[in-house]
Amino acid sequence: xxxxxxxxxxxxxxxxxxxxxxxxxxxxxxxxxxxxxxxxxxxxxxxxxxxxxxxxxxxxxxxxxxxxxxxxxxxxxxxxxxxxxxxxxxxxxxxxxxxxxxxxxxxxxxxxxxxxxxxxxxxxxxxxxxxxxxxxxxxxxxxxxxxxxxxxxxxxxxxxxxxxxxxxxxxxxxxxxxxxxxxxxxxxxxxxxxxxxxxxxxxxxxxxxxxxxxxxxxxxxxxxxxxxxxxxxxxxxxxxxxxxxxxxxxxxxxxxxxxxxxxxxxxxxxxxxxxxxxxxxxxxxxxxxxxxxxxxxxxxxxxxxxxxxxxxxxxxxxxxxxxxxxxxxxxxxxxxxxxxxxxxxx
Length: 346
Ligand code: AN7
Fold this sequence. Notes:
This protein is an alpha/beta fold. It is built from 15 helices and 10 strands. The protein has helices at residues 7-10, 37-43, 61-74, 87-99, 114-122, 134-147, 158-164, 166-175, 190-204, 224-227, 249-259, 268-282, 288-300, 320-325, 337-344, and strands at 33-35, 46-51, 79-83, 102-108, 126-130, 151-152, 181-185, 213-219, 262-266, 307-312. Helix 7 crosses helix 9 (190-204) and helix 9 (190-204) crosses helix 11. The chain is globular, with a radius of gyration of 20 Å. The mean pLDDT is 97. Residues 59, 61, 84-88, 185-191, 240-241, 287, 289-290, 313-314 line the site of ligand AN7.
């Protein structure tokens, strides 16, 4: 078995790598695609989970970041910046560290999961908490590049979308065909855009005979694309997708339109219940935002006997606070066998 060499080497022929001769990689990608038996049974379809939390920094953002940082480094950049709900900042900080570059991350104060904050700090980024939401952080990140020699690595940087196409390639390579439905959480709408580009590119090249319907799901309190207008005060327990004005709004609509897909909303309760159900029944602990993809499938159902992939974008360990708060505290016993026997007999 040959050793996985990272996305830019493994999928180099499908990516625009002009100028890059030395990829910056943490050997991202090649994530598990798990058949979800109980979910398949519940939905009357064949459902797979794409475990993006298995990436080196625990989210799908590593796919775009290996590309963006490799390109930035090749272009001579010394500092990168991003606004983030957390995962982009973790990935940017890690790949910048690997590249020997400086990284500035702007995150909404108090609205980023603890694990993501810990990552950005540990990877050595300059972490700035903004009194404002993600949309403000992103616009500040764009603005600072006009004043200082800094490269932005949000998904408005096309290299990010380019790298994230590899998620679609991996699915087709693993299944031997495209799924009928691709279910995916939507925040800034970069990932749904990237998957669609990846699928269409593979399709045109004859690698996949069909194309999936793209099903995007936003949190009800942060659902600008569903509502058809910007949301000034987005709010959801799924902080990763707490976004009111997505940067890739237009290409996401195009993906929905061209694929005969849909973009719909799921409530926080629906998200949290899908999230804990996945951990209990499938043994997969993703972060709340990721579970929006499964919440949507459970809410709206799928046509019988279709093949469905739900993209679980990030690792559950990133947000321990929400997990611990969602259940009652574990029991505490005296350290005796009697106490333990008595407890387990209940
Ligand atoms: C776990 O990290 O926007 O629709 O700044 O972290 O491509 O934005 C994260 C987004 C889904 C939505 N799931 O993807 C950020 C950020 C998880 C995420 C999304 C995000 P896009």
